[in-house]
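Handout, page 2. Input:
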Amino acid sequence: MSTSSPGEKPLWDHSAAELAAGIRGKAFSATEVARAFLQRIDETNPAVNALVDIRPEEALAQAAAADAKVAAGEPLEPLHGVPVSIKINTSQRGYASSHGIPEWAGAVAGDDAACVAALRRAGANLMGRSNSPAFAVRWFTGNDLHGRTLNPWSSAHTPGGSSGGAAAAVASGMVPIAQGNDIGGSIRFPAYCCGAVGLRPTVGLVSATEPAQGGEFDAPLSFQTMAVHGPLGWTVDDVRLGLHAMVTPDLQDPVGLPVRPPLGEPRPVKVAVVRDAGLAKPHPAVEAAIDSAAAWLGEAGYEVEEVELPLLGEAARLWSLLLYEELRTMMPEIERFGDDTVRLSLASSFAAATEHWGERPTLEAYIKGYARRGTLITRLQQYLGDDRILLTPVSAEPPFEQDADLAGDARVRELLAAQWPMQAVPVLGFPAISVPTGLRDGLPSGVQLIGGRYRENLLLHAATAIEARAERTRPPLAPSGAA
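Output:
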């Protein structure tokens, strides 16, 4: 088995674009790529438990089919033969959509979700399912069915959630691209915690349509207006390639639009730096990451200024009203099937939200909350226009200590306040990207960029400028502190 040439980096450390180009140019085969990544999974996954339900024979069969197309001279897709993982809460034909719940371990999907079908059409080799918390409602990753996922840098800290398995797999080199989803930071925060890149697209750009599984699921309004699928990758180019593969103009999706994000490289634009939305003071390590990113963007030709934007804090508070009040309606199912960690975490989260909305918000407050959301969307889009993006923290804290959301109501109140950058964006439906800035005190650090709706190209361009100046390294084979 050939996984690299002498003196070259191993195949598993190649970007998705490099892998696709190499397969297309016959520098190596899709089968060699699949074997290299399967070997990497064997070496790294036991220590972090990022991927579950790995089927080597299926991955190799997909690779063989990809090689046959190359040999036949057929047209090749942009992700031809490139390994990609799919999250356990997203339908993939022949795999359980378990959500980490033991009782749902046999809920095998008969068809793909729209975003998974799009990745297949793009030529991806679907290789493994990424772990998440039960019901995907924590910023930590573990469940009773598949166990706990560790941060590849430190077992004492969260890999993030809910796409924690996806981020840990990407950072560890198990896949170059991972599919994730995000309603409160579930792509961006895990990318931050593990030192990867994570993009939350504009709502409606990537279809959220799922095949019917034993009846219809009437998604709450917050799920329809806030939840998105998107890519995580080791490089910005990987994420760019993943995004364009996943975009699925789909009018079956209640918020789906028949559009694609703009292509091409825009010129540098204005950058407004927002350090604090009035909810949590940034940790010194977070301040340092913002300082570095702002300086690097200035070097790259961006016009950088410090601003205050209170509407982001208001949007973050709205998130805890609109999402949590709808989660209350799902609590009977969560109580029945969820594990103890999810129940305890949500109980503390509901208690923390009372600080802004009282014990039980009224229907009038909920209705007015959605009305206010529309005003905030308009105001932010007016501010950003076509030539401005925001630079913010990903979180006001470095990656949280493992299971910090189980440490009591007071700590959870701090977590919710720290996560204001994760909460504000879904409420407003704008795109945002989490990009690493290097290591601080042995843990990944990074920043978030927010752009106007459908201006993912602005974010990717700015993220590339940061990536070009940040020192990046892969985590060790086993996290610090792991047994």
